[in-house]
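F.,

This is the one I mentioned.
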């Protein structure tokens, strides 16, 4: 018999997450401009199945149906992202009224169903015009981001309950600019450091803009991965430290007033006087996105990187071939507390989820016991971290819907709700019912 799930503290925020380009569709409607993901997805050979996010889950037209799913699920919060090119088609100038009108309608619909709107300002969909001007390699993009934040907060600041400036700046830097497998497709390796700095600078400037327009708390959502050093040589341990600095500390140390990690090959030439003070503007919540730990060992001689990523054995695997390691989340949460102490604000787990090959059975139902097991294990890990004294105040499942999964197109399904893409039919999976029963016993 399964051990009952321990209770969570009163006021614990239960939520689900999505992002604009992955679900909205309506790519050319109501004045929306092109983003780097529109360009990337329409470039041959970039997306596994050749698909695009032009329609995705058609959330732009079906948001009322999706809000009803949220209300039935019983979550207290919905984390969505705002498409920068829908609000500012070229990334500069006045707001596009039709774009803000959509988010107005969405926010009001959420509040009518007692679901807190949690808005992420940047989930990787940079306006293409800004990319043409240098993108996040250009310092000016940080200033443009703050102006965009001001426009959004001026319209929604009285109703959004939590602001998240950036989603996973490490992933956007590493996959989009370091390795070239995400938009905008640059292959810069460690020369992508300016992208890190300008994202963080934009975050700090946006914090100030948001606080001038809204009294709601402000956060950032970082992706974290505990490092497993595979090997027992000094070179292996140095490689593990280098990867930890890149993935985990590069986007946390400066946020919490410690500056950038030293001695890891990051070029500080783009950092100007006063930048680190801007970046360290106090935040109210640290968003933690967790999927899996990372195996690391020393790279072979001549490698352009100081480490090699190695698959971890001994774990169940998702359809993404990621290891399922719930205890890594407990380890991560406790480690953040131990590393940063009083500098660390309250934590909310802003993404945690898994992809499996979910298909309806002959009755049309979608059974996903592996996802239930995943959520059960990860929620128990959060509870263990809380019991260890970590201030964790919320957990958001990735994702509400099956969606367009970046370079994987429609081949990976993360949703609590199955989406039949040709018909856009939504079918709640068994994990949806499991979570609903947990939230609303």
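My design for it:
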């Amino acid at each position: 018999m399964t051990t009952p799930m321990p209770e969570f503290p009163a006021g614990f925020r239960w939520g689900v997450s999505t992002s604009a380009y992955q679900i909205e569709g309506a790519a050319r409607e109501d004045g929306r401009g092109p983003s780097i993901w529109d360009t990337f997805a329409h470039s041959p050979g970039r997306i596994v199945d050749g698909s695009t996010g032009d329609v995705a889950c058609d959330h732009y037209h079906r948001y009322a149906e999706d809000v009803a799913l949220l209300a039935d699920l019983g979550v207290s919060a919905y984390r969505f992202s705002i498409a920068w090119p829908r609000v500012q088609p070229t990334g500069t100038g006045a707001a596009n009224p039709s774009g803000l009108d959509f988010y107005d309608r969405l926010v009001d619909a959420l509040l009518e169903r007692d679901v807190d709107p949690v808005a992420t300002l940047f989930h990787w969909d940079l306006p293409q015009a800004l990319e043409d001007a240098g993108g996040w390699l250009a310092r000016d993009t940080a200033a443009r981001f703050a102006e965009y934040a001001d426009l959004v907060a001026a319209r929604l600041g009285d109703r959004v309950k939590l602001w998240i400036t950036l989603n996973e700046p490490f992933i956007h830097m590493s996959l989009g600019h370091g390795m070239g497998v995400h938009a905008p497709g640059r292959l810069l390796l460690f020369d992508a450091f300016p992208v890190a700095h300008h994202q963080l600078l934009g975050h700090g400037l946006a914090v100030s803009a948001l606080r001038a327009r809204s009294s709601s708390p402000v956060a950032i959502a970082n992706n974290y991965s505990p490092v497993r050093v595979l090997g027992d040589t000094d070179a292996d341990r140095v490689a593990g430290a280098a990867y930890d600095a890149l993935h985990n500390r590069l986007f946390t140390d400066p946020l919490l007033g410690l500056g950038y990690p030293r001695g890891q090959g990051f070029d500080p030439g783009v950092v100007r006087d006063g930048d680190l003070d801007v970046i360290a503007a106090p935040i109210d919540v640290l968003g933690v996105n967790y999927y899996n730990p990372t195996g690391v060992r020393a790279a072979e001689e001549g490698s352009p990187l100081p480490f090699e990523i190695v698959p971890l054995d001994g774990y169940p695997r998702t359809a993404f071939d990621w290891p399922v390691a719930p205890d890594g989340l407990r380890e991560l949460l406790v480690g953040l507390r131990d590393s940063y102490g009083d500098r660390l604000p309250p934590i909310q787990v802003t993404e945690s989820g898994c992809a499996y090959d979910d298909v309806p059975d002959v009755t049309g139902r979608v059974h996903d016991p592996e996802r239930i097991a995943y959520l059960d294990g990860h929620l128990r890990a959060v509870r263990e971290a809380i019991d260890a004294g970590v201030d964790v105040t919320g957990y958001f499942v990735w994702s509400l819907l099956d969606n367009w999964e970046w370079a994987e197109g429609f081949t990976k399904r993360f949703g609590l709700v199955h989406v039949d893409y040709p018909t856009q039919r939504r079918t709640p999976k068994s994990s949806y019912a499991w979570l609903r029963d947990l939230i609303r016993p």
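The chain has one domain: 13-439.

Talk soon.
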